Amino acid sequence: MEPLATALWYAASGVPVLPLHTGGGGGRCSCRRPHCDRPGKHPRWHPRLITAGLHQATTDPDQVVRWWTAWPRANVGLRTGVTVDVCDVDTPVGLRLLSALVDDAAVPAVRTGSGGLHLYFAATGAPNRVRVLPGVDWRGKDGYVVAPPSIHANGRRYRWIRHGPAPDCPSELISLVMPPPRPHPRSCATRPGTPRPHSTTRRSGSGRRRWGSATTRSTGRRAAWAGWPPPGTSVSTRSPTRSPTPPAPPASGRTRQRARSARA
Ligand SMILES: [Zn+2]
Question: Exposed end of the chain (fewer CB within 10 Å): N or C?
Answer without folding.
Answer: C
